[in-house]
Amino acid sequence: MAYTYEYARGALTVDCVVFGLDEDDLKVLLIQRDIAPYEGCWALPGGFVHVDESVDEAARRELREETGVDNVFLEQLYTFGAVERDPRERVVTIAYYALVNLGDHPVAADTDARNASWFPVYDVPDLAFDHDAILDMAYERLRNKIRYQPIGFELLPKKFTLTQIQRLYEKILDTTLDKRNLRKKILKLDVLEALDEVETDVAHRAARLYRFDPEKYLQQCKAGMGFDL
Amino acid sequence: MAYTYEYARGALTVDCVVFGLDEDDLKVLLIQRDIAPYEGCWALPGGFVHVDESVDEAARRELREETGVDNVFLEQLYTFGAVERDPRERVVTIAYYALVNLGDHPVAADTDARNASWFPVYDVPDLAFDHDAILDMAYERLRNKIRYQPIGFELLPKKFTLTQIQRLYEKILDTTLDKRNLRKKILKLDVLEALDEVETDVAHRAARLYRFDPEKYLQQCKAGMGFDL
Question: Which residue, of A95, A155, B72, B133, has the fewest CB within 10 Å?
Fold first, then answer.
C-alpha cells in the first residue's frame, strides 16, 4: 500500500516529556532507541501521528505503548519544526509533557521491548534529535506553571502531607523554601481539604494528610483568586 | 510530479492570529476565503508548510504573502490537530499569534487578490474551520501574557504616552483601570525610557513621550524582578 500526494509532505510525530517525583529527585522518563538514527541513544518516548487520530490521542497512545503510562496529566507543550531536526527526512514533532505520580506508575517499559528508565532532570544523557531542547522547554514550563496552577499535585499521591508539598516545590524549583511561609501561603490558597487521617509507617510524629480539592480551586478561580505561590 | 509514502500523511498548515490596536478597538486581521470549503467565509491568514522551511518560517511567509505584514512580533500559540477539523482531508495546523503596530502596518491585503480586513475582537463573524477556537485561545493568551511580559508595547508606536499604555491595557483586558495606580505601577517596573519629547498635533496639553527599553527590561529580569502588571 502506498499513498501519493501532489506536494511533498513531511511526517508528523508526537514526543512526550514525562516527569515523575520520587524520594530523591524530579525525574524524567527516557527510552533507549533500538533503531537508527541515534541507535542506543536515549530519547523522549514518542512516535508517528496516525491520520485517523487527533494529535492528543496520538500522544496518549504513544505514551501508553512505549512506557505503559496511562491516565495521567498530559498537556501540549510546543511544536518543534526546524527543517533539519531529523537527519532522515522532514519531521515536525508536537511535544507534550506529562506529570506522573510514581506511586501509581512505578516503572515503565513493561509493555515494550525497549529499555525505559527514569533519570534525574539535572543528570540526563545527551538525547537524540532536538530532544534536549524539548526537555529544557518542558522543565521551564513546569517550573513556571506550578507557581500559578495547581498542577504540582499531579506528582504527589492522592493524600499527602504539607512536607511532601514543600519537597515537591523545592525539587522542581531547585531551591529551599521557608517552611512556615510556604505552609501559610498554601493553606491561604484554600484549595486543600484537611483529612482526618495522618500518615502511617513513619518513625517521626505522624503528620496530617491533605487532599487537593478541585471544587475549592474552581471556586477560588471564580472569585478571581486563582493560585499563586 | 507526485510524492509517494508508505503510510498516509496528513497535511500541515500554519494559521496566524494578527492583533492590532487602533483608535477604537483591539482588532484582528481576517481573510475572506475565495475557495471551497467555506468559500466567502472569513478565516485566519495561513497556508501549507513547505517541506524545506521551518514552521516559524512558514508562518512568517504566509503572513507576508496573505496580508503584507512583515517584521512583527510572532509567537507560536498551539497546534490544533482534531481529526475532522478540515472537511477535505486530515490537516494539522500550527497556530501563531502576531502583534502589529497599526501605524507601521496600516491596512493589509495589497499583496494578494483576496479580501482582508480588520475586525474588532468582540465582533468577529463566524470563522472557517476551527478558527473561532484558535482566535479564542490567542486572545486569552494575549490577555494573560501582557500582565507578565512587556509584549503589549508591540501594539504601540515606538514612542507613546502613558495614556496610550492605559488605553492598550484597558482595550485588551476590556476593563477600566485607575489612572494613577496604573501609572505608578508602570513607572515602578522601570522598563521605560522617558524621552525629552512630547506628543504633537494634540488639542489638549501635550503629554510626555516614552519608549520601551529592552535593556532595562533585561536588567529587571536578571534582578528577578521581571514584569508584573
Answer: B133
Q: Which of residues 5-34 of A touch B (CB under 8 A)?
A: 5-12
- Cα B17 to chain centroid, rounded: 6
Residues A126 and A212 in one domain: no
Backbone angles phi, psi at B158, to 5 degrees: -55, -45
Q: Is residue B65 part of a domain?
A: yes
In a domain, A190, yes or no: yes
Considering only CA atoms, give the Rg of chain B. 20
In this predicted structure, what is the pLDDT of residue A208?
A: 95
Higher pLDDT, A125 or B205: A125
For residue B135, the enclosing domain spans 11-145
Percentage of residues of chain A with pLDDT beyond 70: 95
Whether residues A92 and B55 touch (CB distance < 8 A) is answered with: yes
Whether A216 and A177 share a structural domain: yes
pLDDT at B27: 95
Q: How far is residue A215's CA from residue A223's CA, in Å, rounded to a whole number?
A: 12
Which pLDDT tens digit goes with each residue over B124-151? 999 999 999 999 999 999 999 998 888 9
**In the predicted structure, residue A148 carries a pLDDT above the cut 90:** no
Chain A residues near residue B5 by CB distance under 8 angstroms = 2-5, 9
Judgement on whether residues A143 and A160 belong to the same structural domain of the protein: no
Does residue A4 lie within any of the structural domains? Answer: no
Q: Specify whether A212 is located in the same domain as A126.
A: no
